[in-house]
Amino acid sequence: MSRNLLLISTSTTHGTGYLEHAESEIKELLKGKSSLLFIPFARPNGISHADYTAKAREAFEKWGISVTGVHEHDNPVKAVNEAEAVFIGGGNTFLLLKQLYANKLVEPLKERVRKGMPYIGTSAGTNVAGKTIGTTNDMPIVHPKTLDALELVPFNINPHYLDPIPDSTHMGETRETRILEFHGHNRQPVVGLREGSMLRVQSDKIELKGPLTARVFLQGQKPMEFAPSDDITFLLEAY
């Protein structure tokens, strides 16, 4: 599979503008491309598809990439099939996946990515790149017909991964606890991506980008920490 992916935990980190923290990785991914198709389906309210697309357009046009929203096309499937690259932004993962199925975009996206089309995801857009959306932090405000996602990688991702706060008196479940519960019923690995972190996937190689480590969960094993310099390509074969 000629995967060419950038899977980002979040679109904005503290003190940076929209996508600024991932600028160098985005530019590298889109080298030689001049246009991008944006899929704004994840936002449940507060911002229209048009306004969300305008926000993405403002960021990418500074880097010489023109942007159209998939909702601007009469035929969304045709738009995906003809796109130079695709970016799926954040919001609610359940709503996003439901809309991808409703617009019949799941299989076309899989097929284009298999053939090497660059794919960028942030937050919900990163969640749907995994095997399922079973490790999203979002509430199921709508019900997609299945939790099966795009399966661009054979593992799940937990964007916005949070560590327990030292000396906190909070007695509720941690993010780690929730992922361990997931592994009581599911086999695939889970990557906890902290804010500012991203996965660069090229064919059969994975690099962790950003300043922080990532927490990797394998069923039945203790969670592991991997630094950006570490090789985590084993995740493509771990399931």
TrEMBL record:
Pfam families: Peptidase_S51. Keywords: Cytoplasm, Dipeptidase, Hydrolase, Protease, Serine protease. One of its GO terms (cellular component) is cytoplasm. Its EC number is 3.4.13.21. GO terms for biological process: proteolysis. It is found in: Cytoplasm. CDD domains: GAT1_Peptidase_E. This is dipeptidase E. NCBIfam families: PRK05282.1 (NF003642). It catalyses: Dipeptidase E catalyzes the hydrolysis of dipeptides Asp-|-Xaa. It does not act on peptides with N-terminal Glu, Asn or Gln, nor does it cleave isoaspartyl peptides. Belongs to the peptidase S51 family. One of its GO terms (molecular function) is dipeptidase activity. It comes from the Bacteria. It comes from Pontibacter fetidus.
